[in-house]
């Protein structure tokens, strides 16, 4: 069997049998990549420290970066975290869904300390994806799951990305096509005196503020010199291997184009038109300028354009409205990493 074939062997199409098999692997201390509506997660039994340690090894992730723990039902939470009033209210609006809450752990919380990386808090999420729901239910234990990619790389929005990034380090990939949202969950810290948005996502600061009836604090981008509350705030977190140039209005020769809306009039410096580039050098996040479609396509298209033959990926301007804020956030992190 070739290396590529061996890599493929762990990829199994999600169905009732596959879900049971995946849950068994989790109960036995193994690693399963599973779909959520945001991105694919790399799951392990959150109560089993050795299993959680395998996540860090597979991702080559620094231990100080804590993990999100996944549940199928909010009723499971009080056993592990202080599920306070604010969290309950927001959960009733947004769960199951693409948002994670950071909450204080209860005394004697049985979740492995590796998940919280030594912090007194824990990030928790109830995802909406049907396969995620049945998988988590079948597991019967909380499942710790970061995005199923090597640390510092793009999050996977399709099974093939997981296999390409993690290969045999994962025991099984529960494959269920492309992720609908395509960006990691919003992370909201509810452990302090006031809510703080730590990571932008599909659920926006405006949506959260409107449920709470007051404006929440936003701390989405890490400011140099400040203590990092959530390591996901580090600028260099979402990186293709080539550089990313934002707000491009024309192309440099050798650059790939990630378009948004029409690229009909986009030129290449020195001559030529972007629309004549081959498919492997040109993708469009959304020809109709639909921000949700753009979010769902973002990581897959960055993955596809991330090729050594390109000098960079030039991205057309994307409006900073709704989920466009999260899209720009991920792109500016990717752009920042290419510079270092
Ligand atoms: O959409 C998602 O959130 C995906 C799916 C699989 O659920 N997961 C994901 O996990 O993106 P990960 O590990 O790649 O990102 C988790 C983020 C990181 O930025 C981490 O620093 C932050 O959540 N985080 C986790 N626990 C935290 C805590 N106790 N306090 C503050 N930030 C925390
Ligand atoms: Mg990640």
What ligands are attached or bound here?
threonylcarbamoyladenylate, magnesium ion
Name the helix and strand elements from N-terminus to C-terminus, one letter apiece: HEHEEHEHEHEHEHEEEHEEEEHEH
The total domain count is 2
CATH architecture of the largest domain: Alpha-Beta Complex
Give the spatial strand order of the biggest sheet.
Answer: 1-8-2-3-7-4-6-5-9-10-11
The proportion of residues in beta strands is 15-25%
Q: Give the beta-strand count.
A: 15
CATH topology of the largest domain: DHBP synthase
Q: Report the helical percentage.
A: 25-40%
> Largest sheet, described in full?
11 strands, mixed
Supply the CATH class of the largest domain: Alpha Beta
CATH H level of the largest domain: which superfamily? DHBP synthase
**Uncertain residue segments:** 1-9, 222-228
Summarize model confidence as the mean pLDDT: 90
Topology:
Elements: H1 3-8, E1 11-13, H2 16-27, E2 32-34, E3 41-45, H3 49-59, E4 68-70, H4 85-94, E5 99-104, H5 113-116, E6 121-125, H6 130-139, E7 143-144, H7 159-166, E8 172-175, E9 186-189, E10 196-199, H8 205-212, E11 217-218, E12 243-245, E13 256-259, E14 282-284, H9 291-305, E15 312-315, H10 324-339
Parallel strand pairs: 1-8, 2-8, 4-6, 5-9, 10-11, 12-15, 13-14, 13-15
Antiparallel strand pairs: 2-3, 3-7, 4-7, 5-6, 9-10
The protein binds threonylcarbamoyladenylate and magnesium ion.
């Amino acid at each position: 069997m070739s290396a590529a074939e061996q890599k493929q062997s762990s990829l199994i199409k999600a169905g009732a049998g596959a879900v049971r098999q995946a849950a068994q692997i989790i109960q036995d201390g193994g690693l399963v990549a599973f779909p959520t509506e945001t991105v694919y997660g790399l799951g392990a039994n959150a109560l089993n420290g050795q299993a959680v340690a395998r996540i860090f090894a597979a991702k080559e992730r620094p231990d100080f970066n804590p993990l999100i723990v996944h549940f199928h039902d909010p009723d499971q939470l009080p056993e592990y975290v202080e599920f306070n009033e604010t969290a309950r209210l927001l959960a009733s609006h947004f769960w199951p869904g693409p948002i994670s809450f950071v909450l204080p752990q209860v005394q004697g919380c049985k979740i492995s300390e590796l998940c919280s990386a030594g912090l007194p808090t824990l990030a928790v999420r109830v995802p909406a994806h049907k396969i995620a729901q049945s998988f988590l239910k079948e597991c019967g234990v909380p499942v710790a799951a970061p995005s199923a990619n090597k640390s510092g790389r793009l999050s996977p929005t399709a099974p093939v990305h997981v296999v390409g990034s993690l290969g045999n380090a994962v025991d099984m990939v529960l494959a269920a096509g492309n992720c609908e949202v395509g960006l990691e969950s919003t992370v909201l810290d509810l452990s302090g005196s006031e809510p703080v948005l730590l990571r932008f996502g599909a659920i926006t600061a405006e949506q959260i503020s409107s449920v709470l009836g007051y404006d929440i604090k936003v701390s989405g981008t890490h400011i140099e010199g400040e203590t990092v509350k959530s390591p996901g705030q580090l600028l260099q977190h979402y990186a293709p291997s080539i550089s990313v140039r934002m707000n491009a209005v024309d192309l440099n020769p050798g650059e790939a184009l990630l378009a948004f809306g029409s690229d009909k009039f986009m030129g290449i410096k020195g001559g030529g038109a972007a629309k004549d580039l081959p498919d492997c050098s040109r993708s469009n996040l959304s020809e109709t300028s639909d921000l949700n479609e753009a979010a769902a396509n973002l990581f897959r298209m960055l993955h596809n354009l991330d090729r050594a033959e390109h000098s960079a990926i030039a991205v057309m301007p994307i409006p900073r409205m709704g989920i466009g804020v999260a899209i720009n956030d991920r792109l500016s992190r990717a752009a920042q990493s290419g510079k270092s």
